[in-house]
Sequence to fold (756 residues):
Amino acid sequence: MQIILKALRANLVLGAVSAFTVLLFGGWSGGVMGWLLGTATGYLKTQDQFVPNPQVGARIGAVNGLALGIWTAIANLAYGLILRPLIGQSSVPLGQSLLYAIVSIVLATASATLMGAIQGLANPRHKQATWFTLAFILLIFPFVDQIAKTGWIATVIQIQIFAMLALGLNIPVGYAGLLDLGYAAFFAIGAYTTGMLSSPHLGIEWNFWIVIWIAAAVAAIAGIILGAPTLPLRGDYLAIVTLGFGEIVPIVFRNLTEIKIVEPISSLVATILNKPELAICLVGCDQPFNLTNGEAGINPIGRPSLPIIGTFSSTNYLPWYYLVLFLVLFSMFMINRLRNSRLGRAWTAIREDELAASAMGINRVNVKLLAFAMGATFSGFAGAFYGSYITAIFPSVFDFSVSVIILCMVILGGLGNMTGVLLGCIIIMAADRLYLPQLAQVLKGLLNTTILPNVANPALRDFLAISFDPIQMRLFLFGLVLVVMMIVRPEGLVPNERRKAELHSENSVANESLADVRSA
Amino acid sequence: MLELIDVSTYYGNIQALKGISLHVEAGEVVTLIGSNGAGKSTTLRTIQGLLRPRQGRILFEGRDLQTVPTEEIVRLGIAQSPEGRMIFPRMTVLENLEMGAFQRRDKPAVIKADMDQVFDRFPRLRERMTQKGGTLSGGEQQMLAIGRALMARPRLLLLDEPSMGLAPMLVSQIFSIIQEISAEGMTILLVEQNARMALTVANRGYVLQTGEIVLAGDAKDLQVNETVRKAYLGEE
Ligand SMILES: Nc1ncnc2c1ncn2[C@@H]1O[C@H](COP(=O)(O)OP(=O)(O)OP(=O)(O)O)[C@@H](O)[C@H]1O
Ligand SMILES: [Mg+2]
Fold:
């Protein structure tokens, strides 16, 4: 009993997340949460202590999983029996609610036990088994989502698109220390390249598997073009230039609708001689050339196709899910390789001390350019996938707020740390795309059925009806989280060791005498 | 080995070096002394190609360095321990040393062996292998900066004020290390404000004043030179 109480307290945060999810989504969401977060708690709670063998690990996992399950089960009952009537829906019968609750407990306990036991395996084996379990979860998630009828897969695909972007932005910002405030521009360039090369709009309909590479290459080149003149600038100026670039690119795409290019010399001659027929027209002569279709965007964009599966359809999420999962894993693999390469060490060095780095023979301009280009490459992949997944692109999807949100993911999770960045991405995207809209619905139901009928004053009623929309408060909530974060934990959720030192240090330097430096 | 011919370097419109000429022969320790702002660090930066001279030529083993990029100059064998040490504060001692070997194409085992040599020379660094550079004491940081430069396996070592900010006791330690390195055959160009110590370890010396070389000669002669004694050795 004592142990369970302690575990309940230790699992307060995960339990709250799980319970909150159940209160919003109801149904089998508790089971899914138990499965996912149970695995998480089984892993986390066995990290800060020595686990000699699988039995001990399993016991630790079981206790924590049970605690998590209990929180979830309470939420299941509260949702079915109390909350549902309050938001104007029929309550879930007691038996059904109990079934949801029990399933939550069982799944949470089972997955935490399994994960805990794995952590007790011998050294290389436990790492492999952990990865294997994670891979398994990612692989079967779409099916679980279907069976449990949670309907989260579309959001999960969105999360993965942004995961690629956040990982990419982490290269210049986290690794090389170059603040890029216009990262969405490269995302836009990748998406528009895909749009132009595989859509009936321009009559070019190339295969997605080729276009995605072209999109990445074009984005990388854009990174170099932006970087070349600006990277010799110091940090603050660089931030401003990238900010400007991020603003310009969507505007350019919005306005490339009536292109007519006349060869300049002949045009000059024509003006001087006052004979317009002398001007040699190069592009858009009969009718101005419409490259991007302005605000209406490019639509439809070609979808990828594979043997056996055929062309990916818009109603079946499965192929999209696995494709984007592959792209994310591929990005992680490549970025990890880069990070540990010579180039990766050069990035760290120029972030630490540019002058010293160049005295070591590091060409700082090239190294920074490569950081920009590499970061842009991954947003090019993301853009290509995004374009063909949505099958339409508009300039307004790539505005400044997208750059800021990606930057928030990187900072929230922990600059320069891949796990942290992924976590930051999951948290922000899930909150933004999944929880907030659902919370809005639940609150609306609550207001309409329970609160508003009991408020007599019409002015107050109007006020309540308008002001309780969390979607309206989205940016405010983001800002709030960031501010709190910067005060409480400036190094991010999963900090990079170096960054942590940077922000918390001022350790007094031990000034020892050099006399014993040599004799020691 | 190294020859500067009539080199002038500018920061924007400010001329920091006004046509200096000097040479360093293989195996020598040559010191460049002068007061604050004389242009000593500028000279070293110009040699490494971090700054480009507007006039004059720099020859390293007969090769003109005019158009050679810094990374190539480092690879040719010119390494620097910069002024103010400039170690990477949040990299460990080990990682700092690795950065010193950045331009080398050698196998990891070869680099590892060189690192062991540096650790043999500075045993204190071995103890602090995994400590962050920024948390080392001033003296240890100086050792690290010199060790890092040695990791490039240079043929010419540029040392910029290795005694800066160290207590007298540590200063003499550093200078004996410099002598040791020189005795093993390294060619060294040593920039110092501590003229007395510099002239005792050096074979030859140059005196730099507001971007011009005003005196040159054997270290022994400079030690007894009237002007040097007044201006740089603080004697009457
Ligand atoms: N980055 C810079 N921009 C402009 N002027 C500079 C720069 N660096 C140095 N200077 C100027 O060039 C001149 C020579 O500087 P330098 O650093 O070479 O002197 P120094 O002999 O090394 O002096 P110290 O002994 O104080 O280190 C000085 O007048 C200095 O103000
Ligand atoms: Mg100097």
In short: The first strand of chain A starts at residue 198 and ends at 199. Residues 252 and 481 of chain A are 33 Å apart (CA to CA).
